[in-house]
Amino acid sequence: MKPDTLNLYGALTFPRTKRVALIGALLGCAALIPARADTPAAAAEFGGQCVEGLSQGRHIITKCAVTWADKDGKTYCFSSEDARKSFLENPGANLQKARDFIAASSADSTEKAMQNFDSGDAETLVKGLIEERAKANGGLFPLGDPADGTQLKLAFDGIDFTRTIDGYGFFPDVKFHDPQDAQKRYLIDFWVAPSDGQLKVQEIRIYKEPIKAEGSWTLTARSPVPWWWIPASEHPGHMATKRGWEVMSAVEQGALAEATKNHGVFKLKDDKTGKVLDLEFVDTHLPVRQLDDNGHYFACTDFRAVGTKDQIYDIDFWITDKDGQMTIEQTRVHKVPELKSGQWVQVPRYEWKDLGPSHVVP
After folding, report:
1. Cα(184)–Cα(358) distance, rounded to whole angstroms?
2. Peptide bond into 179 cis (omega under 30)
3. What is the C-alpha separation between 132 and 110, in angstroms, rounded?
């Protein structure tokens, strides 16, 4: 059976080729260390563009005279020392915003570039990367777990299948296990996308992890799950590829502004229970949805209950473009965390088909 695919509108199809990727996922940027000045732009991330500018939705070409590098040796350029200082105030969040902007603004070119590759190419690349890193680590694949900082070393079992989202990418789903206990299995998603005419691994994220219940290990999806696993049919409208980054920025900046007023906590009144929820922002799901041609958009987000690791709320935002300014019109709790069989799972409050027209366009 050929790998399954999702087109730009979330329809499930089974084409033979065309796979490209873009993720708006949440990346934890590790502590940055100085990089040598005057780094060639070709060797830097984002082609030498100012990463702080990208985080603000602007393309700024630099000479890479001001740079920083992460622990993996990836170099980022800045237009000035002030830009670098601003970026380093919150490197993880700013890098995410930069990648979100790049992702949204390059969707069209990515889809064209993907025509030169297929899922087999992506799988070959991933297998080669796993083999290379395992060879340097005693035959095991090293992977940092961003959830708790654990440094995993896993045994490779094979590629389960590759999911393709046209215009957004290849996502090989790879099977691993703990070498000390073969029953402790993992499913790791690799994001593969073309860049400069070649396929490259852009991100690696844990999709399913082993959870011990009643004396045995169970493979369980992690919350929040990678965005490409969220069914597009769950939400109304069609993809807003052109202005999606602006919608995401409006939501995230709105959450940040609210949190700033409350010592870093985003407070939201639950429209059903009346309880005020103390939350911290996790991620915005992609794709962002465009509800109509009159400037109405929709974004689904994940927020974590403050003080917890896995109590995740799904919060929906309705946004309107008013004279070029994105404004949040409505916020609603879509899914709430409930404890079931020892695990926190998201339980939906409502389905889109059950909402009236007033909730399609606020």
Report:
1. 47
2. no
3. 27
User: Phi and psi of 253, rounded to 5°?
Assistant: -70, -35
Distance CA 288, CA 285 (A): 7
* Dist CA 136 CA 113 (whole Å): 32
Is 318 exposed, middle or buried (CB count within 10 Å of its CB: 0-12, 13-18, 19+)? buried
Beta strand extents in the chain (DSSP E only): 5-6, 12-13, 33-34, 66-69, 75-78, 141-144, 151-165, 169-178, 181-195, 198-213, 216-221, 238-239, 266-269, 276-284, 289-290, 296-305, 312-322, 325-340, 343-348
Residue partners of 77: CB distance under 8 A and separation at least 6: 39, 41, 44, 45, 46, 48, 49, 50, 51, 62, 64, 66, 67
Per-residue model confidence as pLDDT tens digits over 80-102:
999 999 999 988 888 888 887 77
Rank 33-37, 114-118, 291-295, 320-324 by mean pLDDT and report only the highest.
114-118
178 vs 70, higher pLDDT: 178
- Kindly give, in sequence order, each residue whose CB lies less than 8 Å from that of residue 65, ignoring residues fewer than 6 positions away: 37, 38
pLDDT per position as a tens digit, 290-348: 777 778 888 888 889 998 888 889 898 888 888 778 888 889 999 999 988 777 888 88
